Amino acid sequence: MLKAIRTVINGLAFGITETVPGVSGGTIAVILGFYDDLIEAIGSFQKNIRKHLRFLLLFFIGAACGLLAFSRVMSYLLDHYSFPMILFFIGLVVGIIPYMYRNGKERGRGYRPFETVLILIPALALPVMSHLKRVYAVNPVDAAADISVPFMVFLFFAGILAAAAMVLPGVSGSFFLLLLGVYQPVMDSVKDVSAVFTNIGLLPDIGKVLLPLGAGIIIGCITMSKMIGILLKSYYRQVNLVLLGLLLGSVYALFNEPGVYQSDFSVSLVTAGIVTFLLGGLLSFVLGRKRFL
Description:
Layout: H1 2-17, H2 25-32, H3 35-43, H4 49-104, H5 113-136, H6 149-166, H7 173-179, H8 183-192, H9 203-234, H10 236-255, H11 267-292
Helix pairs in contact: 1-2, 1-4, 3-4, 3-9, 4-10, 4-11, 5-7, 5-10, 6-7, 6-9, 8-9, 9-10
């Protein structure tokens, strides 16, 4: 029973995280210690359907609740308190890095030269990607415009790309939705789900956005999880080093998010940012100590 509750809570945290541009659900999975279980459940689903189905149902129930229930809350917090909110997530990343670094090292040895490269490449790739997003991001699509079939096809492939990012720590699925210019209509559709009960006329437009996107996300998650699952079995240490590099790179990428600075700066907000950064760092450090030591 406790394991089932923990799985739902993990899913809830994952879903909440995916509403924040630039923040990776995969990072939260690493911090909370269920990343390997998630990859195994999706990538090896057919090998033990009963076991993995129960885990995934509970996880995605939590994720859906987090996404639907907190989309409006996170939107409000990011509009008015973006600086302390993002610093909390940055603190979460920073707090887990020492344990990821220690976990990748062999006993009594440091990193070999080629293994250092496995850390550096993703650590440098994420800052580059964050700058490319600012330069090449597609203009946001007007959510009120009619949703055409070509746009629905585009959403399908955007979902595949976003899902591939979701399962990688440090790489945000919402980052790619922003990059492709569809983040706003997707989030508007998610927020409108709660209004369907009072306005059923919203359902067709919501379905035109979320159904093709969801189909793409399912395919992307399965494909990427299988790939990572295979690599974890044969190259566990090397995969952990790549994950460490992604976490390191995500710290800069998060600071480079335009949304971090959309709320007005004040002494109180900066002070709150410092406090939330320390709280996030302490939280993930304690969780990491329990998991790795």
